[in-house]
Amino acid sequence: xxxxxxxxxxxxxxxxxxxxxxxxxxxxxxxxxxxxxxxxxxxxxxxxxxxxxxxxxxxxxxxxxxxxxxxxxxxxxxxxxxxxxxxxxxxxxxxxxxxxxxxxxxxxxxxxxxxxxxxxxxxxxxxxxxxxxxxxxxxxxxxxxxxxxxxxxxxxxxxxxxxxx
Length: 165
Hints:
This protein is of the alpha/beta class. The chain has helices spanning 40-58, 74-93, 103-110, 118-128, 137-164, and strands at residues 2-7, 12-21, 24-34, 62-66, 98-101. The chain has one domain (2-164): Ribonuclease H-like superfamily/Ribonuclease H (Nucleotidyltransferase, domain 5). Helix content is 52%, strand content 22%. Helix 3 crosses helix 5 (137-164).
């Protein structure tokens, strides 16, 4: 199964693609989509186009994205939510089943500690995906999100279905 992980952000949206075969994980690719444009709509469209290109290039079977956390800056949280919405729309448009994971769950899965630092996440991603060289913290977070989905994807999908029933 090929999994695309997304770490949403308006300025920088991290992405990472891994292959999961049973308990064996391997790195395929990673990067950062940087929004461009003069206004919010253009920046969001830029992210949509770049994520669409990643999907077309790497042909994932499933996707995973980090849930939005609310911080003290309401405007920043709203912008993050808009970028996340565009990413979710792009994944849905591509027909990809998508898991959503809280930041602490991702860190606990990859590092073993729910409040791990960026450096710890990068280090553990490199250990779990030999040969990977994350193109920044956002790409490392996206790979971590994909790793989390590789472990919990089936469980997450069952939980969503049960919650909707």
